[in-house]
Amino acid sequence: MRRVTKKLLIFVLGLLFTFIYCEFLVYYVVAGQCSWPTIEQPHNDSEVLKAFILADTHLLGPRKGHWLDKWRREWQMHQAFEAIMMIHKPDVVFVLGDLFDEGEWSNDIQFKDYVDRFHRLFPIPDETLMYVVAGNHDIGFHNNIRMGSDRRFTKQLNSTAVQFITLKDSHFVMINSMAMEGDSCSLCTKARNEIIKVGGVLKCSENPDFCYEGIKKVRYSRPILMQHFPLYRKSDETCTEPDAPPLSIRNKPFRLKIDALSKEATDYLVSRLKPRVVFGGHTHHGCLQHHEYRTSESSSLPLNFYEYSVPSFSWRNRPDPKYMLVTITPSSYSVNKCGLPKETTIAVTAVIMIVVVLWFSIRPKRFGR
């Protein structure tokens, strides 16, 4: 009887540990395998900014998806986010749009619940900052933005069409991609005016000859551009990252202003802001693009920068969600792309652990001579 009780205890404790590992600890184990990239150039440690970048969480709303799928995906993202925050302790978190899956169709009460749920799932400590940009699932594509949907996103998530943020002398410009349509709507007009102002501040900081009375003075550093859409490109054909889109869709032509910014909007942003690096989401896949532009002000020296497409953070969109850890100084940056555990890996691990537990629970005791 005592032997049966002992085996039952081993079985129960083994199952409990399997559950704890697969539902909690695995996220810490995987997050701990990634680290902050280092800056090779000489720098002042006080200027180093550690940024955690994620995109496309797509929290389900009241209309789509099964409640069990909704609960499961949110649990996974919450545990992964908590593990990343605890292990890596970033200074700032950037979320690059499509926070919600049904934001554009939600009424005000549902949207308020969405925002509250987002903050519950992705909590940050008081010393950490968080900035978000709107995605098409949050407020709708440009031609489908309902009256008030952009306004409530701006108000409840403190995210205007253009945000100019300076952290440790590094500048960030966060853009609402739907405001880059290029027409005369109020959203687009307001965004263009703000971009002109930001461009003026940056030009003044680079060359005092362009300063005027009352303009904001900052230390010059080429800004980091963040938005939901990728910059102009015809397709993902040139994407060769391991997490790039499958070959079956990689060559599919992009619908401009839906899958990526138009060439006109891209040229406008690049000429006004002269970014040193660009981060975006939207495609749910990884991509690294090198851009070379010749602006009217620097026709002799081309403007070179890289653009990173951040894969989705949700298991609903890909089997291997990703995020980025970026170390930033005013003159340099370094990017490390990190993965989250695959569901298949978790399932196989659980099966192996259960088999081991069963073996220890039912194996016959061997008697020595």
From TrEMBL:
Transmembrane residue ranges? 344-362
First-listed, main subcellular location of the protein, grouped into a coarse class: membrane
Stated membrane topology is: Multi-pass membrane protein
One biological process term in Gene Ontology: GPI anchor biosynthetic process
One Gene Ontology cellular component: membrane
Question: Which UniProt key words apply to this protein?
Answer: Hydrolase, Manganese, Membrane, Metal-binding, Transmembrane, Transmembrane helix
InterPro entries (alphabetical): Calcineurin-like_PHP (IPR004843), Metallo-depent_PP-like (IPR029052), PGAP5/Cdc1/Ted1 (IPR033308)
Lyase among keywords: no
Residues in Calcineurin-like phosphoesterase domain copies:
52-285
- At the top level, the lineage of the source is Eukaryota
Q: What is its cofactor?
A: Mn(2+)
Which locations, inside or outside the cell, does it occupy? Membrane
* GO MF assignments: hydrolase activity; metal ion binding
Q: Which family does it belong to?
A: Belongs to the metallophosphoesterase superfamily. MPPE1 family.
Q: What is this protein called?
A: Metallophosphoesterase 1-like isoform X1
Q: Which source organism does the UniProt entry give?
A: Trichoplusia ni (Cabbage looper)
Gene behind this protein? LOC113496368
